[in-house]
Amino acid sequence: MNEQFHVLNDAYRGLLSRTSPSKMSSHELASSIFTCVCELTLDASDGYHSQHQDQSRDLTSSKYSPNPNGTELACLVLTLVEKISSKLTSQQLSQETSLYFKDVSTVLFQHMDFMSKLVHLACCKDRLLSHLAVKSVSSYVIFELRCFNTVNQIWEWKCLQVLQNPCSGTELDASTWSLTTVLKAVLKETAEYEPGTVEKLLATFDTALTAAYSQLVPVESLGHGNSASYPSSNTADWATTLTNLLDLLEVLTAARFKLSTTSVCFTSSRLSLVQASALLRIVDSHVHYFVKKQVLLLLKRILLQKAGEDMGFGEASSLTHGDDHMTSDILTLADDVLLAVHTDRLQCVPVESAAIFFGGTGQSCGGSSDAFDHVMLRAVSLVVLKSLEYKIQSAGGKGVCNTIGIHGYLSALLLFLRQRGVQLKQGSHSCCWVSLVFGEQDDDMMEAAKALLLLYLHHRVSSDLEADAVCVVGGNPHCHFLFLLRNISFDHSILLDFLISTETCFLEYFVRYLKHLRDDWEGFRTVCQKIDGSDRCKLSWKISQKDDQLLDNLREELQQSLCASRGIVSTSSHSGGSVTFVDPEPAPCLQPSLCLPSGSATALASTPPLRLVDYGSSEESETEDGDLPSGLTQDRLHSDSVVHTHNSHYFDRTVMCLTELRAVVTRLQRRSLFPYNATSLLKLLTQIEAKRCCPQR
After folding, report:
1. Burial of 560 (0-12, 13-18, 19+ CB in 10 A)
2. HSE (CB half, 13 Å, CA atoms) of 49?
3. Is 8 left (phi over 0), alpha (psi -120 to 50) or beta?
4. Which pLDDT tens digit goes with each residue over 141-198?
5. Is the torsion defined by CA of 678, 679, 681, 687 positive or negative?
6. In degrees, to the nearest 5, what angle opens at C-alpha 120 toward C-alphas 119 and 123?
7. Which residues touch 2 (CB under 8 Å, ≥6 apart)?
8. What are φ and ψ of residue 537, in 5° steps?
9. Closest alpha carbon to 577 in 549, 597, 557, 611
10. Acidic residues: which segments have biased composition (predicted)?
11. 439: three-class secondary structure by DSSP
12. H-type helices in 170-275, by residue range?
């Protein structure tokens, strides 16, 4: 065994260094590989080496045991086979080395019936051997598809045989994993394969996949309060089987989104949408928590049109430009989700403590909301919100109003979050749930804010809507935007980063919200005042004699710019550190103790937050202060002091943030440095800025 091991190890090292072995011919290497795999196949049939889990080591290391055991040899030979195919597929080898290993591959797979041996080994009960063998099989299938545009017949026959009679175990797991891997490889580099390769694969396995899905997933409806069960005594086996199946479903869905063909729509690629109710029943079943979590993450990615995004497939086509069934299928998915919420199945979704160790084996301690699995909370929240959004966009959302209404669904979602440990206060602060749940994930937070805005606008048109009622269920878009600004310390440069980034839907959300803000200015004022009143803390300012005049001048300049359109002149006086505004219109006396939001006092009293990008550092930046209201410069806007007027704190800070944003975008647009035409955006920001100067009614 020692000699054989060292021969194969030398070949493996040569492949990694992109050189061919000099001590043996390609036929000799192929013969050595075939002999080892034949021995493994015989051993695997008798229940091969279970001790491998305690013998892990780096195969490429030079420090091998002088007497390598069978596990090391097995891992080495299977890894070598997989690497030969993957290197030939990627065409990373020199011509001489490539010819050598092509000869090895040809001898193995065309003259020695090597694929049958690997397929047999992939179905053995030893999980490590099975996985390495299925990797070798998949790698060669991809090589044949890319270089010869042919589907390996042995692999195809075995996958079809297993899928037509699925039974949890290594056979099924190997088949679904291999098919997923092959489809992923083709979808990642579609241009490198012959046109129609994906369609050919889907057509081959479509019927078998559909049949396997109906047998593996509980498709029959269960009575309320019952849980789905699976015909297996080994929960771990079913967890592995379902995990592989869910990965395959995501790839199939991603293929549909990516291809967006209007002529052919395969049944298997529609399963995760038209039979989502079956997937939701997995969440009610007695399977591992991570499987339930994977189901909800899959549904979330489908509803966000991001299926396969983490697999490197690139952007998917819009649902509105999909195949003929796309719209009806996504509505079926939305209906299934909303029906589950309506029947109180949402409250049965588990949310465990967040894992703190790599691999997810540890649990965090403590009873705060931070101790809970926010990935799961975000997934559930977005699945519900996006389902509602799709429903209101179809046929005026009549189906939503016929059940429990938008308020009912949002109330159910808030109840779910409260029961899972999210600390939500009653009243207007219920709207802070978006920041609490999505604060760590910008792209998800923007999707949630956009969906809630659309729900609010729809509900406002279809019914008499009061702001207080909307705040109770956490659906007021003004609150969501204010809490977003508070989280970023009202820093306009972070908003600019969001606008420039393509990783979130912030631009779409922001434009929609600005239009709403323009049309509901008084509602925005009211929300600002309510948040100020309910989220109040006192901050005592220690103003040095040196800073008194700067504070007075700055406050006077801002007051004059805000009141210029009314012809109002503001004067200020101070004595002993107290500052009072004198205005022809009655206004409250402003003391050094300012009303600040909870948790913001320290941030406002300190220096401004560091920006991701300094957009004012260009050579001409000092000449661009004219873009801001008269008398206000960038340095003074970011003074350590807080400017205070007769408006609420949140109102002033928000308007100033938007004003600064408008100035920076204008400057970038003027220099052709903005990545897209921002004319419409600037028009909206200018209209908001003009609203600031209008008399308060």
Report:
1. middle
2. 20
3. alpha
4. 999 999 999 999 999 999 999 999 888 788 999 999 999 999 999 999 888 899 889 9
5. positive
6. 90
7. 66, 67, 68
8. -145, 160
9. 549
10. 617-627
11. coil
12. 170-188, 197-216, 235-259, 271-274
DSSP labels, 459-482: HHHHS---HHHHHHTT--HHHHHH
CB 654 within 8 A of CB 490: yes
Under 8 Å CB-to-CB from 80, ≥6 apart: which residues?
Answer: 8, 11, 12, 15, 33
In angstroms, what CA-CA distances link 108 with 104, 136, 555? 6, 12, 83
Which run of H or of E encompasses 579? strand 578-582
Give per-residue pLDDT as tens, 268-302: 999 999 999 999 999 988 889 999 999 999 999 99
Q: Chain centroid to CA 130: how far? A: 31
Residue 258: per-residue pLDDT: 83
Is the pLDDT reported for residue 626 higher than 80? no
CA–CA separation, 484 and 465 (whole Å): 23
Instruction: Look up residue 238 and give its two tokens.
Output: 């079913």
> What DSSP character marks residue 270?
G
| Rounded CA separation 448/382 (Å) | 6
Closest C-alpha among 549, 581, 694, 602 to residue 645:
581
CB–CB of 653/485 below 8 Å? yes
pLDDT digit string (tens) for 99-158? 999 999 999 999 998 999 999 999 888 889 999 999 999 999 999 999 999 999 999 999
CA dihedral angle for residue 403, residue 406, residue 410, residue 416, rounded to 10 degrees:
10
CB 129 within 8 A of CB 120: no
Task: Identify any residues that bridge with 574 across adjacent strands, giving them in sequence order.
Answer: 579
Phi first, then psi: what are they for 226, rounded to 5°? Answer: -90, 160
CB 186 within 8 A of CB 197: yes
* Structure token digits, residue 382: 């977005």
Q: How far apart are the C-alpha atoms of 338 and 385, rounded to whole Å? A: 10
Tokens of 109: 């797979």
Residues belonging to the chain: 697
First to last CA, the chain: 91
Cβ atoms of residues 175 and 162 within 8 Å:
yes
Structure letter (DSSP) for residue 17 = T
Q: Is 21 exposed, middle or buried (0-12, 13-18, 19+ CB in 10 A)?
A: buried
At 53, list the tokens. Answer: 């889990």
Report the predicted TM-score, pTM, of the whole model to 2 decimal places: 0.81
Of 390, 258, 250, residue with least CA distance to 330: 390
